[in-house]
Amino acid sequence: MRVLKRARALQLLSEGWTVVGAAEAVGVTQTTVRNVRRRYLEEGLVGALHERQRPGAARLLTERQASEVVAMVCAPPPEGRTRWTVRLIAEEAVRRGVVAKVGRETVRELLLRHDLKPWREKNVVRAKTGRPVHRAHGGRTGIVRAATMPGGTCRLLR
Asked: Does the model's pTM come out above 0.70?
């Protein structure tokens, strides 16, 4: 669609239309029409109609570093922690020397690519067989959360 609009803008300019008129007729901004005209004069028709390739940013982690971070997340969290968080993963990766510097967003994207969600592992009491805890009548417990009662006491709500 962009290529067609650029071609139409060039056609209108070649027919003597003004930049303002061509922009309104094609449905693009005046800046777009001026840029297409400039690129046509500098680079020719192909340069005016098609965008240049964009390089994109280089990966911040090598494949080896990424695999080491994933392996670290698959292991139990550090002592004193119940689960991994994105911030904890970034700090541990630097502390262990896996990477010199890594941001939380890089770690988040890495976990997303590998479909890992270590922070979702609940700290739930389970039977030794690995099955979830059930109620006396055999049904599941449902969502259990604590509620603070007047006087500072806690009670479990379902």
From this structure: no
